[in-house]
Structures are given as C-alpha cells and as structure tokens.
# Entry
Amino acid sequence: MKKKWVYIFSLFLLISCASKEEEIYTPVPYDLQIPQLFANKLIAPILPNDNPLTEEGVALGKKLFTDNILSGNKTQSCAHCHRLQEAFSHSQQFSEGANGAFGDRNSMPLFNLAWNFDELFFWDGKAFSLENQAFEPVSNPVEMNADWKKIEARLNNHDSYPTLFQQAFGTSKIDSNLVVKAIAQFERTLISGDTKFDKYLLGEATLTTQEQNGFAIFMDEEKGDCFHCHGSNNNPLWTDNQFHNNGLDSVFSDLGLGAVTGDPADDGKFKTPSLRNLTFTAPYMHDGRFTTLEEVINHYSEGLQPSATIDPLMKKVNEGGVGLSAQDKADLKAFLLTLTDLEFINNPDFKN
# Structure
C-alpha cells in the first residue's frame, strides 16, 4: 500500500509540474502605437479575438518572418520578398522563389494592414485575414516551396522555438496555425504614419507651392481624379482597399479578382495599393510593369485601355486618360513624394 501511495504522489507531482510549465508564463499585451493622424481620421484597428497582440507573439512573428527555416530548402524567409528598406515590398518585378522559379506578380508592400477592414489580401483578394494570407507563401511551389508538416516538425525540433511558442501562446507544441498567428501579429505592427504630408495635416510641416498644386490636382475630379481609389487628407491610408480595373489592359492575361470570384464582372480587377512610400516600392502595378512614377502618371494621363470591366471612375478612358500637362505631372509627382516615410524603413523594431 505504501508503494502505491508513493507512486500516486509521484504521478501527481509530474502532472502538477507539467501543468505549471504550461501555465507559468503570461504573455504581455502589446501596446500598438497609433499615429495621431490615424487616431484623428480612422477608427481603431479591429483585431481578432483569437489572436490578440502580445509582446511575445509579435517578437516571435518577427523572428519567423525573417527566418529561412520556413522555406523548403532553408534559403529564404518572408523577408526575402518583403524587404524593410523597400517598405516590405521587392524591387524586382517578380521575386525569385526558393526553387528558382518566378511568379507573375510584384510583391505587395506591407504596412498599415491592421486597417484593412475588409480583410481581403493579395492582389486578387484570395485570402481572408492576415493569418490565412500567411499560409500560402510557405507552401506555394513558386515561393517558399515547403510542406507545412515538415515545417512544423522543424520548428518542434528546434532548440528555441518551442520555448518561444510556449511564451507566446501557452503551448510548446507548434503547428501551422500558431505560426501564421505569430506572423500576422508582427505584420499588424507595421505602421507607416510619419510622412511630410502627415506632418502637414497635423500642422507640423509646410508644403511647397508645387506640392500644394500636386495635391490639388490629385483631388480635382477634372484633372488627376485620384482620390476616389487612393484616399485623401481624410483617409491617410491612401487606399480604399478595394478592387478596381484601372485600365491597364483591354485583354487580360491575368484575371485578378475575377479568377477568385468566378464572376466575369471582376475580370481585370486588382487591389488598390497604398500611395505611401512610393519612393521605396517600385516597380508599380500588380505585375510591376511600370518602373517609375512618371510611367504611372503617364498611364492615367494618356494610357488608359478600355475593356468591359473598366472601373466607372476611369471617366476619361475614351480620351485615353485625364490629359495632364507636363507641369501638372511634375506637380503631382512632387505631392506623391510627400507620402514618403523615412522613419518607417528605419524603424529598429522592424529590423532583423
């Protein structure tokens, strides 16, 4: 009988210790720093209840985002195609994947994602939520070309990741759902809100005459007519986060949103990118066809192509575009450059 009680007591100690090990650490809530202008103009980010931001989760997400361990051959990380110095985009038209293959779309920049309230991601909106978005690049054969089960095994056998997941999520057993939750936490902290134009709207900077003229053109429905899709002084995201056919092609080699929804009315529609940080995010458009801002402006001025699904906002498509003068184009570019956030690409919290 004595041996039996010793055995029961020992078993109780083992269970108790295991339970304490699983529960010993409570993650620290992450204080998301909202820029003053965003607080003035936008509603607060709506964060998922099942993935709250924590210090430990964000730190883990950053480590995973920059770790080659997530690619099949351990040669690439998320940061390979989303580089801080390029506002988490990529300067190549098409990024090279882990197996040497190239896709057919340009890497989208990553910032202010916590305000993407429709929660549709990728150029074609095929992923709902940041968490779901993070699943695909790992297993995509053109990107990181990995098997999620093998990635889970790598992480579970790693010398430090089980402890980090324990601290972030209360379990040392790692699965893909927790991996993408951590990455999404980090991505929600990538906030760009410190441009010259931001400071201007806060009364902390002055625009040149050319920059003011450029903003007026941007807001003028008869000239630039840019604000419907790309925001304004009242929408500092500089995107509506919606999908539009902006007159790039008359015939589509890439259906964009239409390939996702199966609705021909969506053919040729792609997500509106933010105009923030254009200095760092060339080349432009979903397929990176334009290498300079001048080319982008020329497209809207005289390069619009008609098609069955062209957005009604492209009101002057039959005239080829809005027909800006050389001075108008220079002024518009000057304004667009005021949306450059040097603090963002130099933020030490985002660096490896």
Residues 2-23 form the longest helix (22 residues). The CA atoms of residues 44 and 268 lie 32 Å apart.
